[in-house]
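Homework-ish question, so no full write-ups if that breaks the rules, but can someone show me the predicted structure for this set?
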Amino acid sequence: MTLLLQEPKQSLNLSNLISISDLSKEDMEKILDTAKNFESHTPLDLLKGVILASCFFEPSTRTRLSFETAMLRLGGSCIGFSEVASTSLKKGESFSDTIRVIGSYADLIVLRHPLEGSARLATYLTTKPIINAGDGANQHPTQTLLDLFTIKKCQGKLDGLHIVLAGDLKFGRTVHSLSLALAHYGVRIYFVSPHSLSLPESIQHQLRRKGVKFSFHSSLKEVLPKADILYMTRLQKERFGEISLENSCLLKQEHLKGVKPNLKILHPLPRNEEIERSIDQTPFAGYFQQAADAIVVRMAILALLSGKL
Amino acid sequence: MKEKTLCVSAIKEGTVIDHITAGKGLKIIRLLQLMEKEKKITIGLNLKSSSMGMKDLIKIENTFLTPSDTDHIAIFSPLATVNVIKNYTIANKFSVNMPKKIEKVLLCPNSQCITHAEHTSTLFFIEENNDMIFLSCHFCEKLFSQEEITEV
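A: Not a homework solution, just the prediction itself:
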């Protein structure tokens, strides 16, 4: 049987957070400004009585825990699951039925699912706000918002920066979302990856349409001296099996000679072999600060989508 | 005129879709879901055309298609023309226009798209770039050429 679509509730001004492509620059600025305010002042009871359903059909550590922490810090409560094994999906229940039911229990739903477009579909199944916490290799918009927050925090601005995106650009959804978001800020982007893991044509097409200046490279060394931000990603081994990054796409401490003093290295984590551990001790390492920034950014997203701000 | 009559017989009442890009005729029958409606259909493949070299042609008897019914055709055959026939003469003739979106009748080629697992009707947005036509899936956000897309 075919599920026919009915019009979902209005897809942003912030009713749902599904894809970075749905967000205007004003929407993004609103979230970043709210997060900055929360850094200095957290309204402890803002989400008192509000229930978040944290629905993770795929493994997650940082995203799930940071959403739940953000909810608790604002006085709200959490229900949910972190693996399919503990749900009725094991009994053959469809994703659609699961979301319909959870939508009748909770006030907001954070959703991670291996299939692409799952979060978009969920907006047709419930009137409750849906937050996409990763849909397969497609989008991870809340990671992007916290990436933007950290970049702005460490560089003092977003406009006009030179940004290197490196690693698995084909399957790494954070790179897809981030490059589209950066299109609003007149940045210069350098994509560094093995040829077999280069940026999908659909993302390239969107960047060209938005007038973004970008180029492709096979080695970090070629572009590092120009970079304000180096954004590294890991191989998405769970999506396509065992291959490895070429040496030219792995960051070693020796690569950091001659870089700009303001360079910051970011990574959505978890990290594998792509950043040498000794780099953690250098002033260039920004990835743990980035992970910490997740809390205020996700607090801002929850507060805005719940309609409490 | 005589040659055309010999190739595909005339119909008294109905719709003739002409100037279909050669090789796309069967695809358009599936796209318009004409097979499911028990229509009496005549199809001509690889017919001679003075303007196109070769073309396909479809005649559907006792069915009168409107522009909104046929705009989907433009994705696969942008030069197609639609003739509404009444009493063996052309009562109305129109070109197909590229739609902005297309719902329900196409499958997403991305096997990881949620529309497959949940049997959801699909929605694609049409984008034109340098005379190329691309279809963007509303759900998985992937972009496809018209050659990659298949009908339900």
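Now go work out the reasoning yourself. Hint: The CA atoms of residues 151 and 157 of chain A lie 7 Å apart.
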